[in-house]
Structure formats: C-alpha cells, structure tokens
Amino acid sequence: MPPKDTQKDKTSEEEEVLQAVVLADSFNTRFKPLTLNTPRCLLPICNVPMLLWTFESLALAGVEEIFVFCNAHSDQIKEAIQTSRFAQPAAGLRIVPVVSPRTMSVGDAMRELDEKQLISSDFILVAGDVVSNLQIDRVVREHKERRRKNKDAIMTMVVKRSGAFHRTRPVGDTSVFVLDPETSECVHYEPILAEPRRRNILLPREVLEKHAEVEVRNDLIDCAIDVCSVDVPVLFSENFDYQDLRRDFVHGVLTSDLLGKSIYCHVVEQGYAARVRDTKSYAAVSKDIISRWTYPLVPGDNLPGGDEYEYRRGNRYISKDNVMMSRTCTIGNDTILGPSTRIHDNARIENSVIGPRCSIGPGTIIRDSFIWNDAYVEGSCVIEGCIIGQSVHIGTGSVVRKGCLIGDGTRLGPKANVVEFKRISREKPEDEDEEEGDEEKHELNGLVNGLADTVLELGEHAEAYVWPDTVGADVGADGRSSSAARDADSEDEETEAWGNLKHLRMGDEGFDPYFSDTDSSEEEEESSLASPASGVLLTPGGHPIPDFTLGPRSSANFRSECISSLERALAEGHTVDDAAIELKTLRMASNVTMTEVREVVVEFVVGLVKGDPGSAVQKNNITPVVERWAGLIINLVASERVEVLLLLQKTCARLPNYLSAFKFFLYAFYNEDIVDSLSIRAWLKDPRSREGVGKASEGNMEVCWKQGVQTLAVIEADEEDSEDEDDE
C-alpha cells in the first residue's frame, strides 16, 4: 500500500485547476505599422485573431483558468475576450485579463505574476500568438511526474522536431538545445541568429563531465509553450536582470552553480505547434492552417472564430456568409474568402487570405498575400506577397510588391508602385526624428523619397508615410525603448538588429543560413566561439560533424555526385529533409544554380518509373514514385512551379520511353500539390514550353505541350465538378 503522503499528493493534484498564463504582448516591433492601433495578439490569421487560436489550443489541453497579461491596447484585448465564445459559461474556461502597464518584457510579467500570487500550482506559460493542436495535458502530466521525483525540475520546454528547411523554422531566431538523451534534461542552451553567422558553439566542460552522453540538437523548433512550476516566477523576482525567457532565464538557470535547478525538454514528434514570431512565420503558419496541418483547428471544421466556411478541392475555403464572386473570376488553390467579400470580373486570387467585407476589383491579381477586413482594392491592381491592413484603399492600376506591410486605413493610388519590403502607414513613423519628419513626409499628391534615393510613387490621392527600413531595428528583444536598448546586452541588441530582422520578413526567400553562396571568411572568424577542436560544428540536421572545408568541385562532377546521393537516399530510406540537406550541401560545394539541382532531381524521379513506353505498368508506377519524392521536389521548387514543369517537359521530350507518359506525370504532380492548375496554365502560356531542345527531341516539346492542354482540361473539369458537388 503506498504511503499516505503520496496518496494525498496525488489526490491534491487531481483536484488542482490547470492554469495557464498567456503573454499577450510580443515585446518587439516586427509587425509595425500593423500594430500601431491593434495589439499583435489580435491580428487576424486566417481571419481569426491570434489570441483565439491560443485559447483554442489551451482548451484542447483541458486548461480551466487563463490569466492574460497585457500592456499595449489592453482595452481591445479585454473586449475581445469578453465577446469571444471562450468567455461563455459553456466554454468551461475562466479567463482573467491582467493589465500591467509596467510590463516591458517577459521578466516583468513573471515578476508581477509572483507579486500578485495568482498561480497556485504548476502552470502552462504560452505566448499569445501560438497555434497548436498538441495535447499539452500530456506534457503537464509528464512534468508533474518528474517533479514528484525531483523538486528542482522547474520547467519543461515544448519543442518540435523539424527539418532544416521547414517553413515555420525561424531562420533569424533559432536555437541549439543540448539534451541528455536518457532523461531529456536540457543541459545547455544557445540562441543562434542569422547574423552574425556562427559555425560553432562552446560547451562548458562541466556538461560533459556530468553527462556521459549528450545530443546537440539544432533540429528543434521552440514552440513557445512551457510547463512551469511555481518556482519560476519566484526566480524571476530574485533575478531582476532576467528579461527574456530563453536567453536570460533558461541560460541563467543552466549556467548557475548556485540555483541548482534543472530544465527539461519535451520533444514533439507528432502534432502541430508554431508561434507567429514575425511576418515570415505569419505567412508560414497561415499556409499550414490552410493546408490542414493544424487539424482539427481548420477553416470549415472547427475554426476558433466561429465563422463557417465551405471547403472545396484544392484547399479553397469560401465563407457561407454572403460572398459574391463573378463567374469570370479565378479562385486558385490555398485560398480563403471571408464573409461578405466581393470578387469582381476577371479578378484572380491564389494562395491568399481575403478578410471579411473586402472588395477586389475587376482584373486585379492577388498572390501569396493577406488582405484584412474592410479593405478595398480597385481594378487592375497586382498585389504579391504582402499584408494589407484593415480598411486600406488601393487605387486602380496599383502594384504592391512582396514583403510590403500596409498599415490600417492607408490610401494608395491610383497607379501606386510600391517596391519590395516597404512598410507604409497612414500615421507618421513614431521612430522618426521630429526634425527630419517634414523631409520624410509624403505629400498627398506627390512623389516620396525613401532610403538610398529610392523614389516610391504612392499615387495622386495617397494618404501615407513610408517607413525607413531601419525603423524599430534598435528596439531590444525585451521590448525596451531605443535608448534602453542601447544599454542592453549586445546579444539582445543583435536579436532585433536590422541585419538579423531582415531575414524574418515575409517574402524574403533568398537567404540560406547554411548554404549561402557568398561566405565571408572574416565574418566567420569573428563569429566562431570555439575552434573545431573544442567546439561543435553546427549543421542543419542538428548532428555534429567533423569541421572541414569543401573544396571546389566542377559542375560536371556535381551531376554524378547528386545522382549518387539520391540513389543512397532511395536505398537507405532517407527522409525528404535529409535528402534536401545533402543536395544543397553538394550545390554549395559545386557552385551550381538551383535550376541544375532541380533538373537532376526531376530526371532522377522520372527515371525511377519502370515499364515499357505507354504500358499499364509504366502508368501505374508513376503515382507511387511521384508520391514518394513529392516532398523533395516541393522543397526545391519554392515558387518556381513553371520552371519545374519546363524541366519535366524537357526530360520527357528528351527520353523517348517517357514521351507518352508526360500527361500522367503532369497529373501526378498536380495531385501531389507540386503544381496547381494556375501554374499549369502559366506553363502553357510560357513561350519556352513550345521550344525545341535539340535534334533528338525535335517536335517532342510540342507533343508534351499538347498533352498538357488535354490534362489541364481534365483537371479543370474535375475542379468544376467538385465545386458543383460542394454547391449541392
């Protein structure tokens, strides 16, 4: 019979209310100017405020009481809580807003939590911009079981294993976790920024002395979900220099000889969890929701906001509430149309989210963008890779290029021409110097001077200011003002420095932290913290490898080495992520373009299909082969879908055995979401799709092109049938 004390402990734990603390403030300025008038946690993601996604995640975990710490725009947050379904008695949640004007960092929030004595037992600490379908209650039980054996185990961090190139992996704000493989104890933590680049970390000697074996993990995404004991707020109160949860608190606890506390990691292998840390992760998480990786939290099924959507083939979600679409408009895959939205003649929308009560004018093209509620876009506009805020008006014939953030209420156009990565607001940038303000102000009917003599034409009737690229770059990671940030630790400054922040921007796809084509030996020398003999070399997969320099290889050798790598991956059953890492490593060593990498991969995949030309065996083999390697092709394709179709066409045109099979490959590529109907149509219109590729395949390109026309007709007919069935 177990001791009475143990029975009492278990009984009291069963009676404890599971509590959570939500940090509504982000303590950085990465979303400005979109957050000038709206708190970041209430910005919509897939037409639902981020905070409601977090509440839904906690409700799934069985949380009964939630404390929401807020500072900026606290009145809006309180109103959003009161009007949400989570505040209703049927939800079974008690949500308490805690307004804290003094809170300027996570550390301040934890100290106030300790001061107010709101927490009575172990609790979940989570950011207010987390989307998750994880069963966090399991992590809580694991944490409590560990605490029964070791009272010094004060925190369990939830991390998720991912590939090096997963779209939710934050390039400019990642981490290295050093774990004891037997106990999952985190014995060392190291933040890794995009700039300055680092190739090594330095492990304290004590770590290796105390632990017979450790794992250096650079393949983990920090989910911003922690299970904490009541000791955590107390430690923040005792150490006023703790501001950031990871860089200060976790690092401080793990390196302290006096505290004697331990922190553990729970590595998630299944399920979904991601934090919207910046505009780049905003786009990535939105795509994951649309692609249903967050199931059951998806549009059309269990959306936290309560709106009802009709799910159609190709991950298209159309609100059931008064959406008006012209018969000549085109709604592409991976798209959401919010309630009371109007799409006019010949408008084209793909890979985008359109908010409630928006109007999209005739002939307008919107790609990879997010249009928030009550926006009005006139005709013949092109919007690509942007976030357009609430009640924005964009005039006729305007072009807004990738990476742009257009603040609430801004008016552009007509014929505005906004270059990449610009931030524009109706209000004057608050970080600008007052003396320079008049020079930077955009007259309503004139041209506006930006940085580096760039001239932005905002249109004749524009009401807007263009923000300098470096506005907000000197704000510390703890959210302190510019002057305070200058006095902060250099590591805090580097996190929010412009050189690092630029890699966290939506639409910035050109930076590869591991396989950059241009390396600075001087920069690497400065950023390395340890020599190869005493440190650990960082690789994307999170495994230590010997430190060596890859010598230059010829482009001719690249092809054979690439094929050998793919054959090994096939024979040994490597994952898609591992295969992609090896290919990109070879690319770096051989100094070849991504097009050459894609060409080899497409030819390899086509060549795996066996069977006589035109036979049923060949046709039946195509689907499983493409299904097996689709992830690798998608990983390498990025947005170059037309290019991969051209490569597939040239391969089948050059290899007679596969000429008649082109249409089946094309359909398989479509079914596996490598390409969509819009990209197939764009490929057919591309002049290169009808060009010859040498005497051996003269006329074969035309044969493939005609097969493509037939296949597209079948695909579009299938899509129309699917839509008709949905309408019924």
From TrEMBL:
W2 domain sequence ranges: 552-728
Q: Which PROSITE patterns match?
A: W2
| Keywords for this protein | Cytoplasm, Transferase
Main location as per UniProt:
cytoplasm
Q: Where is this region: Disordered?
A: 425-445, 471-550
A Pfam family hit: NTP_transferase
Q: Name one GO molecular function term.
A: guanyl-nucleotide exchange factor activity
| Record's GO cellular component terms | cytosol; eukaryotic translation initiation factor 2B complex
What PANTHER family does this protein map onto? TRANSLATION INITIATION FACTOR EIF-2B SUBUNIT EPSILON
Q: How does it assemble?
A: Component of the translation initiation factor 2B (eIF2B) complex which is a heterodecamer of two sets of five different subunits: alpha, beta, gamma, delta and epsilon. Subunits alpha, beta and delta comprise a regulatory subcomplex and subunits epsilon and gamma comprise a catalytic subcomplex. Within the complex, the hexameric regulatory complex resides at the center, with the two heterodimeric catalytic subcomplexes bound on opposite sides.
Which family is this protein grouped under?
A: Belongs to the eIF-2B gamma/epsilon subunits family.
Name of this protein: Translation initiation factor eIF2B subunit epsilon
Please name the taxonomic classification of the source.
Eukaryota, Fungi, Dikarya, Basidiomycota, Agaricomycotina
